[in-house]
Predict the 3D structure of the following.
Amino acid sequence: MASALIIGATRGLGAALVREYSARSTSVFATTRSDVAPGGFPNGVEWLSHIDLTKSNVGHNLTGQLKGAKPLDVVIINAGRFTTEDFSAEKGPDWDEELTMYTTSAVAPVFVVHGLAHAGLLKAGSRVVLVSSEAGSVALRHEKEGGGNYAHHASKAALNMAGRLLAIDLKDEGVVVSIVHPGFMRTEMTRGVGFDKHWDEGGAVTPEEAAKSLVDWTEKLDMSKSGEYWAPRGPRDIGMAETVLGKNLETPLRLPW
């Protein structure tokens, strides 16, 4: 039976990925920051507790709980944080929130992948998927969209760079590293930052829809796409895609850095 590790698995896309992989007869490991496994998930999911991507021991903690497990077929690092920022005096950048966003999105994934690789939990053919965002594309930022949201967008750009470098480091091991924009989703995260007002116009999908397309994408991954940055669902929910890249764009869409 194939195996998948979902990091950041208790809600939104992560929770939907756990359910999607379980429905596909996959052995699922899933992480939670809590010491108690969440309810409402399929039987058979193995929960790894106290996995907090803001803590420096996250890689060691994760691999310690996976001791004795066979190398993983799929690892999806989905955990993230989004706190809005603008350039006003009232809601300018927040130091602590910026550190949390950078640590969660761009620092911790490096330690997680490094820990898994050196613990023998990745093998030739393993696929590591880093859940980024089109917000991390420098090329797609445009005056029409405006500025702000510095740490969220920049931490995703940093994740993209980390993913590219990890792909280089893991190439000789035959491990695929894919960097993806999974889609604009109708989640509590996007609602919490006020983006629910854009759900309909922006083509936002449910986490379940995004999970299905992401799992389909991951199943087809090979070394030819390692270290690349893609939108498996195409340009439909990327607001500045046509403005920057032109019309008649393909699905899946390779995104510019």
